[in-house]
């Protein structure tokens, strides 16, 4: 018995001069790496949310036609079939589709689940009957990294019945200022003194590097220095590709205690529909207070620190826009707003004027019978 | 204050069709990533071994001329300067050399340590005086990955005085059969049942993938199923580039109990010289029984499992050879030997015949006054 092994593992190299095709190739081949799938399947909050949302809402799936956009190993398709779906069209552009097909057969769902090896953009529904439900785990870092939502929107417009259901049905991006204590201790302050020597010149370089791109890391809930704010909410039933391309949000929030603000933490949550209107909808949240997921949180490290006293109001304008050179990436712009800037209405900052306006608007909303969401 | 961030982080893509220049470029740029340096500096067994070996042997450094090959951030050069070196020539091919120069200045060693931004192959010693000591942390996974030893050998041949010292002075590669229980539990058996479904088709694919290339992972000492064997020892004072290019080792070892052998674990250790002959030399070991390092262990997963009873003898031939297409990579070939194969002499397998020969050879060695190393 011989084992012949070549160690061809190489240092990673970033692709530059990316074209649309290149971006797609790199995106789809990366998903063939089974380690990524193990990571995702092993992410219990992620996979269990879908499992509960699907299996505890069998009425939404029983005898229905389902589409799974970007099915990966096919786990969501299996849940849907288990929940009684009559037919599941499972679309997967990467070669993992071949493995998904084997898994489906191994679990005896080949009469229900059909795996298609293509991009959803190229998919044609057999006998052009539309589907009742679209399930998809399309979320990337800070919700939109990799822009898979574009494909889900296209699938909805082309293939979902008017009366159909999106799984998940809503998604929101949140932002909150943070002192980033854990990140600083581990990755930045390390460089102050290394084995007794002054390495502070490295600290400055590392910090500058970290400020150039969003950092994917775990932020502890205690590191948030104010209340979180919603940057953007998407209703999956009617969001458009245009809505996702570029958006911004301005918010003011007040510091809970004497603290320091070194960055903005972004995270997201997703809401799943329920068959019973009365029931609380199931939410998959990647907030710092929730069990950790493979998405962790996304951190924008600010170029300068902001000292805060209890009650101090800080304002931010956050703008996300798809990169012109690679639509799967986003430019994220964070602007710290000055005191003179107008606050939005309503505003959660806690200043007397904003409090008053907010209370007034809530009362109006309640009179109008609108649902009031207050995350402050 | 504005923070403008583009998320250009892309999935890693392996370089194919590598040429010599490509290999070097990819190798040297990867070291500019400061995260890698943080990982290495944070590796206490690694950095503290060098620190102790240098600072507890001041006599070897006092007023000496030292060369640091591949100095990185310059930490070993700082140790050498602290130990009293008159001059340290610190050679670094990647751009981290610029940072090393700043660190040296920040710590007021600019009169002792001189950082050169070049490959050691292109270095010319000012006023061509040779050096007393060469320090270098050149070790890669399974000792030789990245083949930096070639550069250290060249530096020794060109720049070290005949009476000079190599730091470290010896290096050894070890091999040991293992049941790989931890690896199987986490990365292989996971695929048996995923969220209640049979994913065993993936298990086979993952296992085949893992068998194609060496796995860098932490093996627990309890997962070794026999005694370790030395694959190769290098004396840094006289090892040649030819010695490193290709070598093999045949060994037989016996199972300690009823067990299973699923792979061969490789690791290495390095020995540092001491000023006093009587003192135990300091050893940096990356063995499973030692505190974990960033090198972890290297595992060759066998294509088929071998069942073992207590006392069963298993034989392996392990061959390492630099890849023809990229000299920084190695082909590792493991051959399981049949019972009929001749055992080497001496052999640690424990069979009566081998025990007898080994005892006889040891007695002969002792009579001849040779040092006897027995790791069984």
Automatic annotation (TrEMBL), chains A, B:
The keyword Transferase applies. Residues 170-335 form the Protein arginine N-methyltransferase domain. It is an enzyme of class 2 (transferase). GO terms for biological process: methylation. It comes from the Eukaryota. Pfam families: PrmA, PRMT_C. GO terms for cellular component: nucleus. PROSITE patterns: SAM_MT_PRMT (PS51678). The keyword S-adenosyl-L-methionine applies. Residues 7-20 have a biased composition (Acidic residues). This is type I protein arginine methyltransferase.
